[in-house]
Design brief:
Elements lengths: L18 H9 L4 H17 L13 H12 L4 H9 L2 H5 L3 H8 L1 H14 L5 E2 L2 E2 L1 H17 L2 H15 L6 H21 L3 H15 L1 H13 L1 H21 L5 E6 L2 H12 L12 E7 L2 H14 L1 E2 L5 E2 L12 E8 L2 E9 H9 L17 H4 L1 H10 L5 H12 L3 E5 L5 E5 L4 H8 L1 H5 L1 E6 L2 E3 L11 E5 L21 H14 L1 H18 L8 H8 L4 H10 L4 H16 L10 E2 L7 E3 L7 E3 L11 E5 L5 E5 L3 H4 L7 E2 L1 E3 L5 E11 L4 H11 L3 E7 L6 E10 L2 H12 L4 E6 L9
Parallel strand pairs: 4-8, 16-18
Antiparallel strand pairs: 1-2, 3-4, 5-7, 6-7, 7-8, 9-10, 11-12, 11-13, 14-21, 15-20, 17-18, 17-19, 21-23, 21-24, 22-23
Length: 741
């Protein structure tokens, strides 16, 4: 296909790639016919994105072009390259899936559709933090999509890499949010897939925005010692090449330097040991590429004969590959009395898999018999997809990702010789639950390397672990969940243990959950009958029993559910972004909040975000209740940023207070009123009225008005009042003013 190439400019081709860059990458491994198919997708995407600009002002086509260049550097197949070029046309250009099928085939359309769905997965922020429930659900979808066709996520990683390269045009708060998400999810994901080339870039780019001062400092340190480092690398490279030649071994020896974020981690590790940057021995590294596995071990012998090895710094990832498929020999040796070098030894094929990970499986005409089997390489992914249906909620899923999937691994063996990968620091009990849930439940002991070992013993690479079970075992011990005792370290094992106790105590949990929810709803003047649908929505449960059991088991707090129920009820009664209207009063006739540009306007504090004096605030003009005051970062007000009813407001110079009436019911006893008043005094809450009702069957009701700084303080006071001896209930009173006593 005749396609005009864009003239090269003096620009950063990583940020602003040209078509020439893509063509050069394609020529490295694709024949002409396949290159034309890829360039056909480029022309289609360029036409559809015509006139579209990125936030930087550059043509939008640069973004899919950059993603395709990254995929070409990984030597992905033609459908993946076409999908990278087309990954935004469905979402941004109105192109239908059927049109893509007609133009490029079912495989490409499926990949583009998958990438479009992943691009649509946003991570909404609630009160300054990522909504973990939404984040978990999005990640579940991502991993399910990846298990179906991992190329979808490789395209997504390429997409994220270019977004990170061009992040400088975003607002600082978005730079930090996107970098945090990249560091927590996408960089570890690239590592887990074995694509170290992308992982290192994502980490360094995220590091730049998350810790800019440390980033600049380490960049300067590395740059200042560049000449010395290169001189040392040349010296030791030549030494090793001469030694290999003398032994008749043919190998390529390359010098390399760790990327900035890995150096940052090394500095933090060494600082804890009282060492400085100059003491970090493995900033210098050599990589030796051989023709065969046997040559790798021969080279290892030469290295250890040439230089003294550092004890405890040898890893054999050829015999025990990482779950990502990574294979190599790692050793560290002293090339001078005070300087050491890290040496990685691997075959050419191992090096390719180390750089490209699972991507090597889609390289053009790849010899799949020499590559690690897909099933073995992605076994951790299918296991995660199986687990995700069993995990209780967002916290469990996110913690499983971070603790069991994205952490360093140890590789242990079953008595039959099967290799099992666990997170670093895992115990025999973690191993038992990894084998099967019932093995964990029936576990009564363990043998490590043929000897009895405690269930809390940290496992090491190469250990052979045998689990001792008993069919008469009564199930897990609650001590297993005590982190101080160290029985389990993986989230998977913790989840299974909690599930066992939850099933055993379901009836008790339902009763406890009902009591806790009833108490929290009463505080917000709500009753459980009539709000069941809202409770199910708030807890994402299929039945009220499931919802109450989750509350009783502590998987979700009754307080959080009650607030969500109140918010849902308020949305039904009025299309205004508040959960509940709280009457506001002040200690003088001057208003606590001023509406800029208006006067004598009724103002109310929004308890959905409970703004406190001194916090940044904004106002929302309601249809019938004046101006509601929200914190500027309240998600309810952020979602309405362009609404014409948003008005600027400010705090006046004195301290405004929220006035609320409370009703406390308790057993009539001497000192009850004194203890209630004492709680208010301890919390620095002023009581402006107080009345005691007539005793009824041994119970008495105290009704009083307090002035609090906001809903948080009010809720704290109510919780403490609930703990006063003899108090049966604490509720908000909306029936009328309290009588001054």
């Amino acid at each position: 296909m005749a396609t005009q190439r864009v003239a090269a400019e003096v620009v950063d081709l990583k940020k602003h790639p040209t078509l020439d860059v893509l063509v050069d990458a394609l020529e490295q491994y694709l024949p002409a016919d396949d290159r034309d198919r890829v360039l056909g997708a480029y022309e289609f995407a360029r036409e559809k994105h015509e006139g579209h600009l990125r936030r930087s002002g550059h043509p939008y086509i640069e973004h899919p072009l950059a993603a395709a260049v990254t995929c070409a550097e990984l030597q992905l197949d033609v459908p993946a390259l076409q999908a990278a070029l087309l990954h935004d046309v469905m979402e941004d250009c109105g192109v239908s899936r059927s049109q893509l099928v007609s133009e490029f085939g079912v495989d490409v359309a499926k990949l583009v559709d998958g990438a479009t769905k992943l691009s649509a997965l946003q991570l909404p922020r609630v009160t300054g933090t990522i909504d973990r429930e939404v984040q978990a659900e999005n990640l579940r979808k991502m991993f399910v999509a990846m298990a179906d066709d991992v190329r979808v996520v490789i395209v997504k990683l390429a997409d994220r890499l270019h977004n990170m390269r061009t992040l400088d045009v975003m607002r600082p708060d978005k730079q930090v949010r996107i970098s945090r998400e990249t560091m927590d999810i996408y960089a570890p994901l690239a590592a887990r897939l074995g694509i170290w080339q992308i992982r290192a870039q994502l980490e360094d780019l995220s590091f730049k925005y998350l810790e800019p001062e440390d980033y600049r400092r380490i960049s300067d340190l590395v740059a200042s010692r560049r000449q010395t480092r290169e001189r040392y690398l040349d010296q030791i490279r030549v030494q090793l090449e001469n030694a290999l030649t003398a032994e008749g071994l043919t190998a390529q020896v390359r010098g390399r330097v760790k990327h900035l974020y890995s150096i940052h981690e090394k500095i933090n590790k060494y600082s804890a040991q009282g060492k400085s940057f100059d003491d970090i021995y493995d900033l210098l590294a050599l990589r030796v590429l051989t023709e065969s596995t046997s040559d790798c071990y021969a080279v290892l012998g030469v290295v250890h004969g040439l230089w003294r090895p550092l004890a405890g710094e040898f890893d054999d990832y050829i015999a025990s590959p990482r779950p990502s498929g990574y294979q190599s020999l790692h050793t560290t040796a002293f090339w001078s009395p005070s300087h050491a070098v890290e040496v990685q030894i691997r075959t050419q094929q191992m090096d390719r898999e180390a750089e490209y990970g699972v991507a090597v499986h889609w390289a053009y005409k790849e010899d799949r018999h020499n590559a690690m089997n897909d099933r073995e390489r992605l076994s951790w992914l299918r296991q995660l997809v199986d687990w995700q249906g069993e995990l209780a909620g967002a916290e469990d899923f996110l913690e499983t990702l971070r603790s069991d999937v994205f952490q360093d691994q140890v590789f242990v063996h079953t008595p039959k010789g099967e290799i099992m990968a666990l997170r670093s620091g895992a115990t025999p009990l973690d191993f038992a639950f990894r084998i099967h849930t019932d093995v964990g439940y029936q576990c009564v002991g363990a043998k490590v390397n043929g000897r009895l070992a405690r269930l809390s013993t940290p496992l090491e690479n190469g250990d052979v672990v045998e689990i001792v079970t008993s069919r008469t075992a009564r199930g897990p011990s609650r001590d297993w969940l005590n982190p101080a005792l160290g029985y389990v370290t993986t989230q998977h094992a913790r989840t299974k243990i909690r599930q066992w106790f939850n099933r055993q105590a379901r009836t008790e949990n339902i009763a406890r959950g009902r009591d806790e929810l009833d108490r929290e709803l009463r505080r917000l003047s709500l009753r459980l009958p009539g709000v069941e649908a809202e409770v199910l929505e708030a807890t994402r449960s299929k039945s009220m029993e499931d919802a109450l059991a989750a509350i009783g088991a502590g998987d979700v707090t009754a307080h959080a559910v009650a607030l969500k129920v109140a918010a849902a009820g308020d949305e039904e009664t009025e299309s205004e972004p508040t959960v509940e209207v709280v009457e506001r009063s002040a200690p003088s006739s001057v208003e606590a909040v001023s509406v800029l540009g208006g006067s004598n306007m009724l103002t109310r504090l929004a308890p959905c975000c409970s703004p406190l004096v001194g916090e940044a605030i904004t106002g929302f003009i309601t249809r019938s209740r004046g101006v509601t005051i929200h914190r500027e970062d309240c998600p309810n007000i952020v979602s309405l940023a362009d609404d014409e009813r948003i008005v600027p407001v400010r705090w006046n110079t004195f301290r405004g207070l929220t006035e609320a009436r409370l009703r406390v019911t308790g057993w009539d006893r001497v000192g009850l009123a004194r203890d209630v008043a004492g709680v208010c005094a301890d919390e620095n809450v002023n009581m402006v009225s107080f009345v005691t009702g007539e005793p009824d069957r041994g119970a008495v009701t105290l009704t009083f008005t307090v002035e609090a700084s906001g809903l948080r303080q009010l809720q704290r006071v109510m919780s403490k009042l609930d703990g006063v001896h003899g108090v049966m209930s604490v509720e908000r009173d909306h029936q009328g003013p309290a009588v001054n006593g």
